[in-house]
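Case study 2.
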Amino acid sequence: MGCKAPQNYGWTERALKKGYQVLFLDQRGTGLSSTVTAQTLAKQGGPEEQAEYLRHFRADSIVKDCEAIRKVLTADYPDEKKKWSIIGQSFGGFCCMNYLSAHPEGLQEDPVLTASGTSAKVAERNRAYYKKYTEDIQRVKNIVHYLQTEDVELPSGGTLPITRFRQLGIHFGFHGMSKSLIPDHWDGNVD
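Prediction:
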């Protein structure tokens, strides 16, 4: 799936303009760090060895990494400048809360984990999408009605609940994704 370059996140420029320095971390098991795959896990041995190896990828280990990085980066700073600010979303937000619990002395302020701007942005994108693709309003209503009355089996097992269908909407924000999710030839009928 990949991620955008750090400078391409909307909040990065705002943080830099406010005087923050921004450090993006590839937490253990992601990005350019040691990734965990079925193949790398199999090399660890049996189930007990694998479980022991996976312990190193938990939030508490990631928090220890962050605290070690903070201490190295601020080693030559005066005491009043040794604290930093952190931000995270999803699992990163969970790690922020763990950091707050384990090392509050390292934080300049409590991490902000709310998505206050996100809800407004999602609503704005929904309005723009439905303004451009008005025919999809009824399509989505048809799909939701169908999911309320029928069990739709997923290839991975289980059924497709309405809440999971709504998560597809995140892809509408990516260029060209709406056409790949709802092709032109589909007329919106669910029969």
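The chain has nine helices and no strands.
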